[in-house]
Design goal:
Structural class: alpha+beta
Oligomer: single chain
Strand order of the largest sheet: 2-1-5-3-4
Helix content: 10-25%
Number of strands: 15
CATH class of the largest domain: Alpha Beta
CATH superfamily of the largest domain: Molybdopterin biosynthesis MoaE subunit
Order of helices and strands: EHEHEEEEHEEEEHEEEHEE
CATH topology of the largest domain: Aldehyde Oxidoreductase, domain 3
Length: 236
């Protein structure tokens, strides 16, 4: 077995009541396994699992990243900015169905009065250009980098619209059928005129530019990978 010491910071340390805990993991454990064990061991952390950040060997880590024996592991909330409020941010590449109501609740504060939401879904019929039917889309993601880039998009949104309170960006992976949500971007704020609509629009445009996710379209005529036109720059 693999025993690791997990460091806890800020409100997570206060909730657990300790600065560090020892966790027993399997030999091929991943970050997602650590999350599961942490919640079982400390169920009081479950309400925070959507915003908990995990670092392995001082680098941000994501669900599929391995945790080797003796790794330096830390759990902490989103890094503090200039505000005295904790601004919730949630980003994920997932195989599970997207629950819009759950995600909006995760990024809402007592002061929240508006939410701007973009929800993309699979079209069964495309009418732009040549008419074609889609049986399903197959999404593939370079998950660790994709989640890192989703985080970057959220940070860009906050820089452009400081009044935004919460941000959720979730992208589906795997086989998805017509009528099913493939991506959700939600931004919350105190009022509707503080940029929630513009921020959600900016978010989907940036996701399409810099997040390494690809889709294969399967139709009665065959299948084809859909490639974008944007080429990332060093500033991305």
């Amino acid at each position: 077995m693999n025993y690791i010491t997990v460091l806890l910071f800020a409100n997570l340390r206060e909730i657990v009541g300790r600065r560090e805990v020892v966790i027993e993991l399997g030999e091929d454990a991943k970050v997602c396994d650590l999350k599961t064990i942490i919640i079982k061991k400390f169920p009081e952390l479950e309400p925070h699992i959507g915003t908990i950040i995990i670092a392995v060997n001082r680098e941000y880590a994501f669900d599929e990243d391995p945790i080797s024996e003796g790794a330096d592991v830390a759990l902490f909330p989103p890094v503090s900015g200039g505000s005295n409020r904790e601004m919730p941010t949630y980003f994920e590449i997932t195989d599970e169905e997207i629950d819009i109501n759950d995600l909006v609740s995760r990024i809402s504060l007592p002061s929240t009065g508006a939410a701007g939401i973009f929800s993309g879904m699979v079209r069964g019929i495309t009418t732009r250009g040549e008419l074609r039917r889609t049986e399903y889309l197959e999404y593939e993601a370079y998950k660790p980098m994709a989640e890192s880039k989703l985080k970057q998009v959220a940070e860009e949104i906050r820089e452009k619209w400081p009044s935004i309170e919460g941000i959720a960006i979730v992208q589906r992976a795997g086989r998805i059928y017509p009528g099913t949500t493939t991506i959700l971007i939600a931004c919350t704020a105190a009022h509707r005129d503080t940029g929630v609509f513009e921020a959600a629009r900016y978010g989907i445009d940036r996701v399409k530019e810099i997040v390494p996710v690809w889709k294969k379209e399967v139709s009665p005529k065959g299948e084809i990978w859909i490639e974008g036109e944007y080429v990332p720059t060093p500033q991305d």
